[in-house]
Structure formats: C-alpha cells, structure tokens
Specification:
mainly alpha; 0% strand
C-alpha cells in the first residue's frame, strides 16, 4: 500500500516543509489534489506499522495544502513579489 502511494503521489514524500517554503517563495508549484489523502493514509500506515512519525512536518504540509485549496476556491490569488 505504501509503495502504491509513493508511486502515485511522489511529491508527498518526506516532511514537506522545504516544499511549502519553495511554494511560498514561488520557486515550486503547489500540488494539492492528492497530497492530503496521501499524507493522511501514509501517516496511518507508518504509525500502524510501528514507525515513529514526526508530527510537525506532515501537519505543516497538510495544513498548507488545505489553506492553498481554500484560498483558490475562495478566489484568492497569490501575491507577487
């Protein structure tokens, strides 16, 4: 199951804080369609199998995905620097 998630959503790997910062600096594109379910299910698999899961990285990444999606659906555009 974890291999299937990694193959289908490769940008969900790792904590993701670096990717959130890159999106904020407009150096990367935010991809949120499958990110939230992939991170959630991946976290459940990791915890269920006895692995240690740091909580800061995954929570920051999922919160950024939720905020990005809510902003786009609410008609907000990212600020240009």
């Amino acid at each position: 199951m974890a291999c299937a998630i990694a193959q289908r959503v490769p940008h969900a790997a790792g904590s993701g804080i670096q990717h959130v910062e890159a999106v904020w600096r407009q150096e990367a594109e935010a991809r949120t369609a499958w990110l939230l379910p992939a991170k959630f299910i991946g976290g459940l698999i990791a915890i269920g199998s006895g692995l240690v899961l740091g909580r800061e990285g995954p929570i920051v990444r999922m919160a950024a995905a939720i905020g990005s999606t809510a902003g786009r659906r609410g008609g907000r555009r990212p600020r240009r620097r």
